[in-house]
Amino acid sequence: MAFSLRQNDGPDSGDAVMPSPYTAPYTLQPLTPERAEAFWQLTDSVARERRYMPFLEIAQADSAEYVRSQLACQAPHLLLLDGNQVVGWCDVTLHRLPSCQHGGTLGMGLLPRYRGMGLGGWLLENTLHLAEQRGLRRLELTVHEDNLNAIKLYEKHGFQLEGRKRNAVRIDSRYKNVLMMARLSADTAPGNPRP
After folding, report:
1. What's 109-144 look like in SS3?
2. Burial (CB count <10 Å: 0-12, 13-18, 19+), residue 41
3. Quick check: 14 and 83 in contact, CB under 8 A?
4. What strands lie across the sheet with 174-184, from one edge to the other?
5. Helix 60-72 with 36-47: angle, nearest 10 deg
6. Residue 126's closest CA among 52, 53, 44, 20?
7. Beta strands 103-110 and 77-82, pairing class
8. How far, CA to CA in Å, does 121 sit from each of 118, 149, 170, 173?
9. CA distances from 118 to 22, 110, 124 (A)
10. What is the per-residue pLDDT across 162-190, written as a single tens digit (0 to 9) for each?
11. Left (φ > 0), alpha (ψ -120 to 50) or beta: where does 173 sit?
């Protein structure tokens, strides 16, 4: 199954690889086996910040298995590159249960120096586009309640609060609440059959 990235050149532009709106050589690329190690290094680095993820570190073997799974099911999974360096990711882990296969769980992250530049929004928008092309109708995520920038980004892209898990994570003896958010396609109202 082939997917394409969004291009913002107007309504008649069609689907094409989206050129970077930035002057630096940023690109969005799909996850590939050749980038598996760089993806692991990136996600492990963000996890070791001990601020944003439920993982405090990520084992390389676990990451390699996740990459194999993502590639096998052709899940939406983009990497943000600065030149040849992988500096961000946004992915959707597909739900496996037959009654939930219309959805997935979104995850994303960027290295610290690439945050606050609008790159996360660009990455998220294109991953959401791939998820729509894939036929996904419900995307959900969890976010630490104190991660206000991420919450604003998710809300801007249509995610809505569905619940709060109190004291859901404990990092360095400090408890944090976790918000559950989801984004629904217009055709997922109760009683609407899927086209």
Report:
1. EECHHHCCCCHHHHHHHHHHHHHHHHCCCEEEEEEE
2. middle
3. no
4. 26-30, 77-82, 85-94, 103-110, 138-144, 174-184, 160-171
5. 120
6. 20
7. unpaired
8. 5, 11, 28, 32
9. 9, 11, 10
10. 999 999 999 999 999 999 999 998 776 56
11. left
Token reading at 153: 């980004």
CA atoms of 58 and 84, how far apart (whole Å): 22
User: What one-letter code names the amino acid at 138?
Assistant: R
- The neighbouring-strand residues paired with 104 are 94, 139
Q: Which of 18-32, 83-97, 102-116, 164-178 is predicted least confidently?
A: 18-32
Quick one: which of 79, 54, 55 has its CA closest to 144?
A: 54
Are 56 and 96 spatial neighbours (Cβ–Cβ below 8 Å)?
no
pLDDT digits (tens, 9 = 90+) for 85-99: 999 999 999 999 999
